[in-house]
Design a protein that fits this description.
Layout (H helix, E strand, L loop, with lengths): L2 E8 L4 H12 L7 E8 L5 H14 L4 E7 L2 H4 L5 E4 L11 H18 L8 E4 L4 H10 L8 E3 L2 H15 L6 E2 L2 E3 L7 E3 L4 E2 L2 E2 H4 L3 H5 L1 H7 L1 H9 L5 H14 L9 E6 L11 E8 L5 E3 L7 H20 L7
Length: 327
């Protein structure tokens, strides 16, 4: 008998959710021996739109789609789930400071953290809604689910960085490996090319324009989201959904020997980062939901300073929501 995985997606009628759902239902993410039940959460005004999305899912006649639950109540949507993809969050408005966005979204993730107590014991949580690291910190703080089962997404930043390196080197993107995103999913993140490889060789040997690697490469990745908005008129949707699903697949399979991927997890003190801060690290998955942070990667003085900057921003964000943190 095939397995069943229950997946909750919040903000499911939005563009990122829409780009996720059909791939989740198709069997692509969890395998063709696994049935999928989708638990879709939306705000009340968006439920009508979500009903239309469910009609489309039905019309696809996916053989592995067991059932679909829709609700505007997180306690209902999170009942018995194995995965929670927390996409829904209020977008940053014109003239809104990042601290304002953090305060607006904080209460949402308090409630969702509490509702995650309804999930299965093996639940894994990925926060996509921005500011993802701090939203993840809030949700984890307000939940009985162990902190190591929470993550915030920096896979999109990793993909962006790998694409830029591949373009510069004139190679296919699958020839780029071990790209690390350190820190916050924000403009202070540090995309690390010093430890990355192209065809198994250090990037700094393959790409000799080191000024580009320390300058424009980093800024392009840091500002890519804003660049997409300027060009498209909307924020990244398909690429964000693709990255979230790639994170899920990476956590559900053993990472290949000598490789790693990026994700923001609760710090265990590695690389001098404060315990409990949700910080993006290089990680290796054991294939069963557990993982470990890759240790002892060499960091230049240049890289160390970048980590200092992004860690300080996360401390400041934590201070803004201190009143929402329960543990």
């Amino acid at each position: 008998m095939s397995k069943l995985v229950k997946v909750a997606v919040t903000g499911a009628a939005g563009q990122i959710g829409y780009a996720m759902l059909f791939r989740l239902a198709s069997g692509e993410i969890f395998g063709h021996d696994t049935r999928v039940a989708l638990h879709l959460l939306e705000i009340t005004p968006a439920l009508k739109s979500l009903e239309g999305v469910v009609m489309e899912l039905e019309d696809c006649a996916f053989p592995l789609l067991e059932n679909v639950v829709i609700s505007d109540n997180a306690n209902v949507a999170f009942e018995g789930i194995n995965w929670a993809l927390l996409v829904g969050a209020k977008p940053r408005g014109k003239g809104m400071e990042r601290s304002d966005l953090i305060r607006e979204n904080g209460p949402i993730f308090v409630g969702q953290g509490q509702a995650l107590n309804k999930a299965a014991k093996d639940v894994q949580i990925l926060v996509v809604g921005n500011p993802a690291n701090t939203n993840c910190l809030i949700a984890a703080s307000n939940s009985d689910v162990p902190r190591e089962q929470f993550a915030a997404m920096t896979r999109l930043d990793e993909n962006r960085a790998a694409a830029q390196l591949a373009k510069k080197a004139g190679v296919a993107v699958n020839q780029v490996s071990n790209v690390t995103i350190w820190g916050n999913h924000s403009t202070t993140q540090y995309p690390d090319a010093e430890n990355a490889k192209i065809n198994g060789k250090p990037v700094y040997e393959v790409i000799t324009d080191h000024d580009w690697l320390k300058g424009n490469f980093i800024s392009v990745v840091q500002k890519r989201g804003a660049t997409v908005i300027e060009a498209r008129g909307l924020s990244s949707a398909a690429s964000a959904a693709n990255a979230a699903l790639a994170h899920v697949k990476s956590m559900n399979s053993k990472t290949a020997e000598g490789q790693w991927f990026s994700g923001a997890f609760s710090s265990d003190g590695s690389y001098g980062i404060d315990h409990g801060l949700v910080f993006s690290f290089p990680v290796v998955s054991h294939g069963d939901g557990s993982y470990h942070i890759v240790q002892d990667l060499p960091l230049s003085d240049f890289a160390k300073q970048k980590l200092v900057v992004t860690a300080e921003e996360l401390r400041q964000e934590k201070a803004v929501v201190q009143n929402l943190l329960k543990k």
